[in-house]
Design goal:
Blueprint (H helix, E strand, L loop, with lengths): L4 H6 L1 H20 L5 H8 L3 H29 L1 H20 L4 H15 L3 H11 L3 H32 L4 H4 L1 H15 L13 H24 L4 H23 L13 H31 L4 H7 L1 H21 L2 H16 L10 H27 L4 H33 L6 H27 L3 H14 L7
Length: 479
């Protein structure tokens, strides 16, 4: 039986804590595994493309199913879907921890992601629902954003501790007690809620999203091994193009689409999605290449490799509130441009990376990149919802979250592909040399952030946002 409203209100901060626990394990899992990749490589005899799949088997389903998870919860109950997601995520984590082979581990990662897709968008809906006061809701969402940065930054350090002391399997087992605790607390303190007008399920749109992203990712990861001109790889690229083009055409005709194409008439919204894609694509590649370089080229332990990322982690945790104040006082433009510059300079310092690059240069690069990543998240979200009617703001933010995950997926795939083209080995001086193309790729991502950030924060861009909001507001819709 649902709790009385006053009891739900009294426990609102505890509910926020419970939802943040789910964010912690999902965010942690997107980075904690990176530092364990060399150990997994040795234990399960994984190739470079196998290591890419360990990451992308998690981020790909997460990116594909986030929108479905949120809309399903709105329809059948947020608490019910949230608990199902926690149980699925815990079970998937346990299966990862005992995986006897690379194939089993990849399959378990995909199962984990199925649970993850039921957590973050649903948890944020629960938070929005339980905080009725706008001022408190803003504080709650700010805490939520800080926890996101904390979980991402903590991952490599905590992973290094586990791999060095008790083994790589514990990077997955850490999710089990946190997830089970969150599930028990949810049963006691979270009351059930539904959307007043839930969106209809869009199975065709969902299928096209999965088909397009999966075929594109597979083609990029396996293209180096199978040959870019092979029938399989060319066919997969063709399937990706046809699927994503069909998705656009289909969603434009649907009354309640999975992906609202009218949003993209807003230049700030489109820009936020592209910036999210570039920023998290760069971050995913940055972590992957640095993890392999520090452990397989420099010979550092997983713990030392994790500690190397501390400058990055600190800025990712500390700077979102600063970015929020900049957005409030100066708008989105300044923090976006500062983030773009920092995310450009960080990898630019590594474009001449060798097996004996100085430690101070590495740490400075990590710190500068962390500054950019710490600044970019708040203006991404704020830019996405700029000018949107309140009824559409949540959906707009969910699309941007999906863009982050798609960026992570494609960033891992492309980074591995360009490095694999330069070296078949994932250790030694040849690997350090091969990473140069990866760092230049990240410089390209940063240049895109700068250009898009400059264009989509102009008076013209905000005019397109206002026009889009007017079209989306029910009162302005044609009768």
């Amino acid at each position: 039986m649902p709790m009385h409203e006053t009891e739900a209100h009294r426990h609102r901060w505890l509910v926020l804590g419970i939802c943040c626990m789910s964010l912690l394990i999902v965010g942690l899992d997107s980075t904690i595994v990176n530092v364990a990749l060399p150990a997994i490589h040795r234990a399960l005899h994984a190739s470079l493309d196998g290591l890419q799949w360990i990451i992308d088997a998690y981020t790909l389903p997460l990116a594909s199913l986030l929108m479905l998870g949120g809309s399903t919860a709105d329809r059948i109950g947020r608490k019910r879907v949230f608990q199902t997601g926690l149980i699925t995520f815990v079970l998937g984590s346990a299966l990862c921890a005992v995986a006897p082979s690379l194939g089993v581990l990849i399959a378990a990662r995909a199962f984990q992601a199925l649970g993850g897709a039921m957590l973050n968008p649903v948890a944020l809906s629960i938070v929005r629902n339980v905080f009725e006061d706008p001022r408190e809701r803003t504080q709650a969402v700010g805490i939520w954003g800080t926890m996101l940065g904390f979980s991402i930054g903590l991952g490599p350090v905590l992973g290094g501790v586990f791999v060095t002391t008790i083994g790589w399997r514990y990077v997955f087992l850490i999710n089990v007690p946190i997830g089970l605790t969150a599930c028990l607390l949810t049963a006691r303190y979270v009351k059930e809620s539904w959307a007043e007008h839930p969106r209809r399920i869009d199975p065709i749109g969902q299928l096209l999203v999965i088909l397009g992203l999966a075929s594109l990712t597979y083609a990029i990861i396996e293209g180096q091994r199978d040959g870019w001109s092979s029938v399989t790889i060319v066919g997969l690229f063709a399937v990706a193009v046809v699927s994503l083009a069909s998705l656009v055409a289909y969603e434009l005709r649907r009354h309640e689409p999975l992906l609202e194409m009218r949003f993209f008439r807003s230049a700030p919204f489109s820009g936020a999605g592209l910036i999210a894609f570039c920023a998290f694509g760069s971050f995913a590649g940055f972590l992957l290449l640095n993890t392999l370089y520090l452990q397989n080229v420099r010979g550092y332990s997983a713990l030392h490799a994790g500690l190397f990322t501390l400058p990055l982690a600190l800025f990712v945790v500390l700077l979102p509130p600063v970015s929020g104040r900049l957005v409030s006082g100066r708008g989105n433009r300044l923090p976006l441009l500062l983030a773009g510059v920092a995310m450009l300079v960080g990898p630019l310092l590594l474009t001449g990376l060798s097996s004996d690059t100085s430690v101070p240069l590495l740490l400075v690069s990590y710190a500068i990149f962390g500054i950019g990543l710490g600044l970019v998240n708040v203006p991404i979200t704020n830019t996405a919802i700029s000018g949107m009617p309140p009824s559409q703001a949540g959906v707009a933010a969910a699309v941007t979250s999906t863009c982050r995950q798609v960026g992570t997926t494609i960033g891992i795939a492309i980074s591995g592909a360009v490095v694999g083209a330069g070296s078949s080995a994932i250790s030694g001086a040849s690997f350090a040399q091969a990473t140069h193309a990866g760092w230049w790729l990240m410089v390209g991502f940063a240049l895109a952030i700068l250009v898009i950030g400059a264009v989509t924060t102009t008076p013209w861009a905000y005019g397109t946002a206002r026009a889009t909001a007017a079209r989306l507001t029910p009162e302005s819709a044609p009768g």
